[in-house]
Amino acid sequence: MMLLRELVAFTERHLFLVSVWCVFFFIVVYNFIIGYVFGYFEISCDKVVFLINKRNAVVLDIRSSNEYLSGHIINSINVKIEDIKYGVVFSMSDWVKNKRSPLIIVHDVCRGWSLFALRRHLKKLGYMEVYLLKGGILSWEENFPLFLKTNKIGANQKRE
After folding, report:
1. Distance from C-alpha of 32 to C-alpha of 11, rounded to nearest angstrom
2. What pTM value is reported for the model?
3. How far is the C-alpha of 34 from the C-alpha of 115, rounded, in Å?
4. Strands 77-78 and 103-106, how do they pair?
5. With a cut of 50, which residues of the chain have pLDDT below it?
6. ∠ CA(148), CA(97), CA(125), 5° rounding?
7. Which of 2, 24, 33, 95 is most solvent-facing, going by the fewest CB within 10 Å?
8. At the top level of CATH, which class does the domain 44-159 belong to?
């Protein structure tokens, strides 16, 4: 009981300090919970390579066409986020018909629609495994080469 009275007295004397501490405490707890709940679907470059090689994962690159052409993961498919959002891509493409294959989303900076909302949308469409490349294309570029598509048909170059 004495400790509670002392705590109340301290709070009354140092209201600003206690308020700031509470705000920081809730920010830390919030970030921890968000990281725990949502962090499990962000995967490393090594895990992406494993999923591509062993599980035939489909890599969706949601960056702009110009960014995609300046360098991308080999065999990745450049799609607009709006096409995913409105189902245009999924109604006309064979590569997404198998909903058991993992989908890996490659991004740089998600503009507008958040990556979490995109993942939730794909899960609602029935895709069981949807992952984000942790760190986006920049983390891939640090660890693995990007491929450039030239104007010549069938010509690909590596960018290291």
Report:
1. 26
2. 0.68
3. 13
4. unpaired
5. 92, 150-159
6. 105
7. 2
8. alpha beta
